[in-house]
Sequence to fold (398 residues):
Amino acid sequence: MSDNGQGDGTSVAAVRLLVAMSFVSYVGTWTERVALGWLAWTLTGSTFWTGFVSMSVLLPSALLGPVVAVYAERWDARRAMMATNAAFMGVSLLLFGLVASGAITLPLLALLALAIGVIGAALHPVRLTLIPAVAPRHYLSRAVALSAMSFNASRVVGPAVAGLLITTVGLSWTFLVNALSYLPYIALLALIPMRARIAPAVKSTLWQGLAEGLQHALAHPLIRWSLFLAATNSLLVRSIVENMPAVVGGLLDGNARDLSWMTSAAGLGSVLAALLLGWLKRDSGQMRRMLRLVPVASAALCLAMSAGLPFGGLVGIAAGLGFVATLVGIGSQIIIQMEVADTHRARVLTWWSSASFGAVSLGALATGAIGDIAGMGVAIFLLGLVGAALAAGFVLRR
Fold:
């Protein structure tokens, strides 16, 4: 199918189909994400090593994402998306074989988690430009919100699927389910119409490209503010959500069913936040005014989680964490998508990814390390104190 631009009606229909097929793949991804963390916990019983596995998945996007993005603006988005998703499928099949045969060890798990992270680092800058390549301009903010809503809806369904599979047929099947979930998405990528992207007029060297993307981001007040907000959100909230197996194991001494409840609750909060943003249709300035107070709620939720509440209360807090994490995650991305020029889109958006993934990796590793020494309750309490200080800066700064 041609990559030439299509009519707005065709483009909107293509966006909706892409979102639907993405949902299937995302469900598999979240099924595997929960399984990876729970596998790390069952192998080690350590919050540090569980956080280390989570960090291995996320940190490569922070470190390699900007480098990849310099070249991603010149890649064929269709081929890059198909290749990276096929690579993900291969790793999932390998995990299925190792876990099913009992051959999995912590070093192998960490290595494969790192492989997932490296593939994700190659995928992420391209994926961030996919919706703008399919959606008409007037539909872009709604398309970004729909895409995020699909991702966050999968955060409810995926953990539930993981919990069901782990408790009925075994942990290994979660990896096979994820591998199969890539098939319809890859097939759609081969067929969906995409507009040709505007490549940079002058080809930069690697370091020039990195510097241009960062300079473009920092020179724009709204983009700069969004990057800092995304990093704060990831440090305070996403580091808990992404390391939920360590929270469930270390704070609750829970099981796979408890993990499914907590992760699905966070996913439900994420869906509600995505629905709210899709309904509001705010512009960039209004979005900033709405998001300015969110870090206060983030710090309060962290402090509440550390207070030793009963399980039902912790499920509610997990939903709240998912809500504020997604409100900031989608909101900051919408601001950047609306403000950035096409010629710098991948390079600027990947700095958003680096800020987000770098902060969540640091937070997950730090809370895991403190959790092994002093307990996860203390680790989350300290995170809340840091959050309170950062939140004060957002409230006082105009």
Remarks:
- The chain has 15 helices and no strands.
- The domain at 8-192+207-396 is CATH 1.20.1250.20 (Growth Hormone; Chain: A;).
- The chain has a mean pLDDT of 82.
- The first helix runs from residue 8 to 44.
